[in-house]
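R.M. (postdoc): so does anyone remember the format we settled on? I'll just put the structure tokens first.
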């Protein structure tokens, strides 16, 4: 019995250590009242107002376009290929999903290298934006 509990505790500890970065967002996700939605103009206002984290957030938002483009290209091309050679609706649907996932991943990697995201702390910029939005939205209420 003791070995089983230590195994489970070790497993939980292993994943808690690897996913500890998610704790940065718990302040914003586990609230009694959720934060109101924001618009692109709000994000642009933050980018203009914060000289340190603003450019990083802008670059991260631009990188998301690479991922979305990659997802669209990957999904459509693999689904078309699957449909051309198999004429199987379920195979085409799975190819669409798989191609979209691969395309998104590949697009994010291209953006990571092209925009040198590995040099930036994009998570800190996102957390700073969330803190800014929290302060701004509380000031509105």
């Amino acid at each position: 019995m003791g070995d089983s509990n230590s195994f489970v505790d070790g497993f939980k500890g292993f994943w808690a250590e690897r996913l500890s970065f998610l704790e940065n967002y718990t302040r914003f996700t586990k609230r009694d009242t959720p934060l109101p939605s924001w618009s692109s103009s709000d994000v642009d206002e933050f980018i203009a107002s914060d000289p340190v984290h603003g450019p990083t957030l802008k670059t991260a938002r631009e990188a998301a376009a690479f991922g979305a483009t990659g997802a669209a290209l990957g999904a459509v091309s693999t689904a078309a290929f699957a449909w051309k050679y198999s004429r199987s609706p379920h195979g085409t649907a799975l190819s669409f999903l798989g191609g979209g996932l691969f395309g998104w991943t590949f697009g994010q990697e291209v953006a990571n290298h092209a925009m040198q995201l590995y040099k930036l702390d994009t998570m800190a910029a996102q957390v700073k934006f969330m803190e800014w939005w929290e302060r701004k939205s509380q000031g509105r209420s």
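R.M.: ...and that's the designed sequence above, right after the tokens. Also worth knowing: Helices lie at 2-18, 26-29, 40-49, 54-86, 89-114, 122-140. The longest helix spans residues 54-86.
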